[in-house]
Amino acid sequence: MRSACLVVALWLGAVLLPGACAYADAFSGLGSARPDEMLGAISTLAVSGDPQAGTVLRALGERHLFAAPDGGLYIRQGETCVDARTGQPVATVPDGLKPVRLNNRIRTALAGAQASMALLAPQAETRLKAADALYARHDPAMVPTLEHALSVEKDAAVRTRLMQARAATILAQPAQQDTQDQRLEAVRSLAAVGGLEARGILAGVAQSDAEAPQVRHAAQAAVSSMDWHLRAWSVAQNAFYGLSYGSVLLLAATGLAITFGVMGVINMAHGEMMMIGAYVTWMVQQAIRVSVPALEPVAILVAIPVAFVVCGGMGVLIERGLIRFLYGRPLETLLATWGLSLILQQAVRSIFGPTNIAVQTPAWLSGSVAVGGMDITLNRLAILVFAALVLGGLMLVLRRTPLGLQMRAVTQNRRMAALMGIRTPRVDALAFGLGAGLAGLAGVAVSQIDNVSPNLGQSYIIDSFMVVVFGGVGNLWGTLAAAMALGMGGKVLEPAIGAVSAKIAILVLVILYIQRHPRGMFPVRGRGVES
Amino acid sequence: MNPFSVHGPRNLRGVIWMAVAVVVVAGGLAMASLLPEGSPFHASAFVVSLAGKYLAYAMLALSVDLVWGFAGILTLGHAAFFALGGYAMGMYLMREIGARGVYGNASLPDFMIFLSWKSLPWYWWGSEHFAWAALLVVAVPGLLAGVFGWLAFRSRVSGVYLSIITQALTYALMLAFFQNGLGFGGNNGLTDFKDILGADLHAPLTRAVLLVVTGVLLAASLLAARFVVASRFGHLLVAVRDAENRTRFLGYRPDQVKLLVWVFSAMVAGLGGALYVTQVGIINPGEFAPANSIESVIWVAVGGRGTLCGAVLGAILVNLGKTLFTAWLPEFWLYGLGFLFIGTTLFLPQGIMGLLRHVRKPPAEEVTPEVSDTQGGEA
């Protein structure tokens, strides 16, 4: 501080007594060949409040600062030169410019000076960022700077961060007897911050022999409690991933479960319906971008009903044109729908090309929120909510509408339902359409988290089958439980044995489970159900 | 309800004709490949290995027909047994390379050195002996089928459920074999083979002999399959297919009947896989892909389910079509295959053999006693 005042006084003097020296200001030391003078100049400039100070220091760090023999300082910007003091371009570049040399000591001082300048910047955001940087650096030399910044800081958030930065910095200094209390306080402050960085510093303190026992114990306690938190959060994070994957599986499998429940057929082209749903999303986005660009952020919402209608319509067509001829031959239906899936894949490949297409994720669905120690990505969260809404809607359709009643009746006993006057062919067609429409919805959801290519359906179909056979048919709760169990199971096993092994383990577990419960977790019971 | 005869393939003569035809064609091609290159009847190495591939696929189709046509089990995972047989043979061929690999290590295959493994894992022990490999070719698929089938049939998993879990089985195996750590070459699988039993795999004579062996083994499997389905056991099998509960109530054990034919079928598939590897020269995890298994089902459907001959015919015809199609119009092959699936199930439920029978005899005689069960929908 004192030297700063001195330099300011000198600078005033220089202004008041023009001609005493060509450049007797805070800048002139920068051109000096003596490191001490340079160091002094740097710290002076940092607190000078001169509008050019930041620019000059940055230029120095980037080695763009040049000194003229007469003490003039210039910043080279490509071909042109700028006078460092005024920021004005100079017409003629003076002769004999020499780059201002840096050594490690000067570089350290320069970084500190820049940080302390940022700490005193007028914008709170800049100050916060500077405090973050100092927290990460925990350079012992910065303690005075931090204390000074703390003494003038008013903003609460910045103050907290500064105190944490100071705590980290204090702990980074070697331990001394008389600083015990200060260090103990710093340990507490850091323990409150959490995070890997703080854990690293505290672990260092906990193992250090030079540390006073109570400081060491406090650090040890802090580290172990932090570890527990980190583990808990990572479990929570995995659970979220599991829920998210489970909700995707749920969306993909409900349609499959409905067609299997009502008609006893497995639709091997179900994955392709998902794929088409994703392509419909893309087409809707393109159409809206061309016609009504203002609506682009909500294109995905428009795509939801469109995909449902398109895929549902295709489903009805498939049932009327193909499946109904194979009634009573579920295994042949399986083969025919497999053939259909090959045709649909190839058709999409011919029309849209074999490569991935770029489905946009709207701004309100991108990014993530941090909840404690876990990251909740917004698109996955949205899919979770979407799956819940779809499931709720489907429950309503099945429980509260005539179609739902008829579908449940046909699921339980087809012949009896037909005798009661239910037009089973119509129910079949609508159920198949509903299943395909649900696949379309799943496609919209998947387009937000996965690559959209003609092969999209293939990557989900086997997992969806697993959900259906695991959960049993004709019961949405079974599908829900199975989807979540498989989604969570995979993600829980993943950290321990790896992604692929987790998948294999899940498949094997489901295969074994089916041996014990051949009709899934929630089998349909009753007289009408065949053996 | 069921379009198939309760007696299995009636015409022993047809099966014998087919077996003879397979051997004659394989033998003829083999001899043609030994002719000098200028000769008009010369068959190139490409044609010979293609023919060998078709015949190996025909064995897979035969094994699928055994379980689908005669036991009513629609398997969507039979390519797993085929690939396991292939890997068992591939292990032996890998060891035959010996010190001629890139790294010149006599006891470790190249990919293990690449993974810096120090010694062979236990399941590779003995793989340098052909006899052991030949045993593994049928034993490994048979064992897996035995465990899987015992669990599945005992708890009466059937119909679509069984189809789905067979698909899950092959999918799980595919994922596992893609792992480098499993010790089967990961992504690349086993390849770069040099010798079999000391004979150069690239020599025309070796290839010709392999083709003949494949033809003979296919013919033998065909006759063996025919023997199985025409025996008392075969009648029981058809009874289980058409009316499982009724058979059970008569005091038979459908689960054991199914298990036996399932294991036998897996062994035939494994043998097919072994012959495939020797002639194609590579086996990789792609062979486990569920799509392959489903394709082998369509071969059977095209040829005619439950006829044995039809499976062989279907496999050869569809694969011939695939080869030609992918050469002329590569992007249309999937359309062709897709329409083949749909067309066969819709319009040709008894396949080519059904069509032939239809042409030879008036349809009125085709009516077989309707056997239906309480389990209406299960075909």
UniProtKB/TrEMBL annotation, chain B:
GO terms for cellular component: plasma membrane. Pfam families: BPD_transp_2. The chain crosses the membrane at residues 15-34, 41-60, 66-90, 130-153, 160-178, 208-238, 259-277, 297-320, 332-352. InterPro entries: ABC_transp_permease, ABC_transptr_urea_perm_UrtC, LivM-like. It is found in: Cell membrane. One of its GO terms (molecular function) is branched-chain amino acid transmembrane transporter activity. It is a multi-pass membrane protein. Keywords: Cell membrane, Membrane, Transmembrane, Transmembrane helix. PANTHER family: HIGH-AFFINITY BRANCHED-CHAIN AMINO ACID TRANSPORT SYSTEM PERMEASE (PTHR30482), SLR1201 PROTEIN (PTHR30482:SF4). NCBIfam families: urea_trans_UrtC. This is Urea ABC transporter permease subunit UrtC. It comes from Komagataeibacter melaceti. The lineage of its organism: Bacteria, Pseudomonadati, Pseudomonadota, Alphaproteobacteria, Acetobacterales.
